[in-house]
Amino acid sequence: MDAVSPTPPIEGAPTEGAPTEAPPSETIGLPPPRLDLDALPPRMLRELRASHVGETVAVNLYNGVAGATADPELLRFAASHRLVELRHLRLFEAVLPHARRSRLMGFWRLSGRLMGGLPARLGPAYFYAVVAGVEAWVDGHYAGQIDTARRLAPDPGLLRMLEACRHDEIQHSLDAARLDPSPPWGARALAWAAVALSRLGVAVARRV
Which pathway does the UniProt entry assign to this protein (predicted)? Predict the structure, then answer.
């Protein structure tokens, strides 16, 4: 079982004043489930691969903020929420060996950096709108996966992991929406585009 290794904060994030800490997370102390991947239905394996890709994109989304903005609040938000997404990613890495992961990992990492860096460069309202919109969509994505797991692979540990990750993503969406509850139309349009690309990315990750 892989342990979560310590990871330095985002380069460029402010370190003075209040320390950067991860928001509360349902995954703290949660061990990865011990799954017999050969016994899992192919559809569930595709779902796990898609979620591993999604968490990879999420970590790199927050990585992409570095160098794209000097806004201290945005940098702190990115650094702290990245710690939660990194915990999610480590759980999926412990479940899925390299041979079971997407073959496009370099592409997914680059996509995440662009998804975070572009809106951060445009301004905080754009970044928070993208995070709020994408994370709200991820809530529904995890809800569908949980329903699928209950039907096809009702492993208690797997269900706990998926439910904990879903809870965290809901909180991330709320956190971003609170920081800018009325984004301009351009930010809303960018968030819509990010959701559409996320939906397409999941479809591709299930297959490749």
Answer: Cofactor biosynthesis; ubiquinone biosynthesis
Tens digit of each residue's pLDDT (9 = 90 or more) over 15-47 = 333 345 667 787 888 899 999 999 999 999 999
Helices and strands (DSSP H and E) totals, the chain: 6, 0
* CA–CA dist 106, 132 (Å, integer): 25
Q: Does domain 38-205 have CATH number 1.10.1070?
A: no
Q: What is the dihedral of CA 28, 32, 33, 37, to 10 degrees?
A: 150
pLDDT one-digit tens code per residue, 146-183: 999 999 989 999 999 999 999 999 999 999 999 988 99
User: Computed from CA positions of residues 36, 40, 42, 47, in that sequence, does the dihedral angle turn out positive or negative?
Assistant: negative
Sequence spans of domains, the chain: 38-205
Structure tokens at 171: 């909180």
User: How many angstroms separate the CA atoms of 110 and 112, rounded?
Assistant: 5
